[in-house]
Amino acid sequence: MRTNVFISGGGIGGLTLGLKLAKCGVDVTVAERLPGPSPIYKGELLQPKSLEIMDSLGAIESVFEKGHKISDLELAELKNLKAESDHSLMSYSNLPSDYPFSLMIHHETLKGILLNKAKKFPSFHYHPHTVCKEIQDHKVKLEDRERKETVEIECDFVIGAEGRSSVTRDHMGVSVNEKKYNHHFLTVTFPRPETMVKGKIISTYQSFLGLFPLPDNEVRSVYLIPAGEYKALRKQPISEFHKLYINMCPELDGYVNEITDWKQIQLMVPLKYHSDTYVKDHLALIGDAVHTVHPMAGEGMNMAIQDGDVLGELLCDMYKLKKLDPANLEWYPKVRRKRVTHQMHLSHLSALAYSYPYRPIGWLRKNSLQRMEKDTVSHYKQMLNISGLGLWRETLHDRTIQGGILPIRSRKISGKEKENTRFTEIQDYPWKETEALR
Ligand SMILES: Cc1cc2nc3c(=O)[nH]c(=O)nc-3n(C[C@H](O)[C@H](O)[C@H](O)COP(=O)(O)OP(=O)(O)OC[C@H]3O[C@@H](n4cnc5c(N)ncnc54)[C@H](O)[C@@H]3O)c2cc1C
User: Fold this and answer.
1) Separation between Cα atoms, residue 243 and residue 236, nearest integer Å
2) How many Cβ atoms are within 10 Å of 185's Cβ, its own excluded?
3) Per CATH, which fold does 182-268 belong to?
């Protein structure tokens, strides 16, 4: 068999890239190890930049139909479990986009939307229940577990989109340095009160509960536990789990109780790594294969989508212009590496803010979040940077304002500032301007 681009792994990153290539007529083959949808929880929050990409792929209507829009994130810090909370509200609504909000959608639903769209194109070939076993130069050996046979595919380019354990990354001889955190998360979806429509993060100095509404009156939750405590927790009756949630958010009484067995609850172990190498010869890595991020800022899935978009546009142009020198692939990390580094930094800072169970840290966090909300420049920067739409770096000046040393700014962000800090099409796809493809 022969194809132009072979993608190992049909997760969110692989399918975004696959659809993008199929749409521009490039022959693309995706091999996915799993036979069908997986029950495992993964990223579900789409940031504004990813919504713009879904629009460009012709998928936005289906995404809206199956998703729940979130314009605001409410951050509530409880002094203790009985006390009134201090609130702050971070909002996407001021961002320069047709989509000034995020959106929650079931991970497998989003994959289904991308896959069904891609299957409509004759140049898209999908092999479920098929594992990429070996790469030899331009040949890839696959194990088709359905038919119990080995398949060989010849291709121009191999893209590793296999997530955290990547055969392509191993073949490239690339290793990653994993950083672990001092905490893990319990994560589970259950019914929610109809009125719970905003994203909500509730914390005390020693606990954290994130609530992200899904469609059909469901809510995805993440609850922070110290690393290593999961086994002991699971020995408790499930009512102890209900209590943890209800103590933090009494509104969930009668809802979280729908979870009747620890088996329904998944343990999520946050990790962080960023490979030095994105591209080697005719091979490239996208998504979790090249970088994994702490889930606190809801970026993991978005980074995979945004990688798929940039690499997809590049490969489409290479085929359109018949400029297939693998050296062209270097444009992809030129765009993505700096953006990924910054988003990983933001996620890491958010993780640190909730990592230490001491009262003074809780107090500092509450004060700086409240000041970030009120300081229009800090507020805008934070939401722009997590949205993926642009990059406006935080400065020492911003941090001193958030820390309470300098006064809060209340000036409006001008149209020019928004224009200057939002990525332009040429910043997203810089090779188009320079005609530099070989
Ligand atoms: C357990 C878990 C929970 C998560 N929760 C969150 C969250 O709450 N919020 C958040 O922002 N992010 C979360 N993430 C991260 C987010 O889901 C990922 O960043 C995102 O899914 C990355 O997409 P991807 O396509 O790169 O990789 P993946 O989604 O991992 O997809 C890789 C695909 O490749 C397939 N594959 C692997 N090896 C092979 C092979 N040899 N041959 C063929 N196919 C192969 C796999 O079956 C899989 O379908 C979570 C990740 C995990 C693992």
Assistant:
1) 11
2) 22
3) D-Amino Acid Oxidase; Chain A, domain 2 (3.30.9)
- Model pLDDT for residues 293-349, shown as the tens digit of each residue: 999 888 999 999 999 999 999 999 999 999 999 999 999 999 999 999 999 999 988
Pocket test for ligand 1, best of 34, 127, 162 (most atoms within 8 A of CB): 162
14 CB within 6 A, ligand 1: yes
Tokens of 181: 């955190």
What are the pLDDT digits (tens) for 180-236?
999 999 999 999 999 999 999 998 887 899 999 999 999 999 999 999 999 999 999
Q: Which CATH superfamily is domain 2-67+105-179+271-345 in?
A: FAD/NAD(P)-binding domain (3.50.50.60)
Distance CA 303, CA 340 (A): 7
pLDDT of 285 strictly over 70 = yes
In angstroms, what CA-CA distances link 355 with 277, 294, 358, 368, 385? 29, 12, 9, 16, 22
Residue recorded with tokens 């020693």: 206
Say if residues 182 and 175 touch (Cβ distance below 8 Å): no
> Could you tell me if the CB of 398 is within 6 A of ligand 1?
no
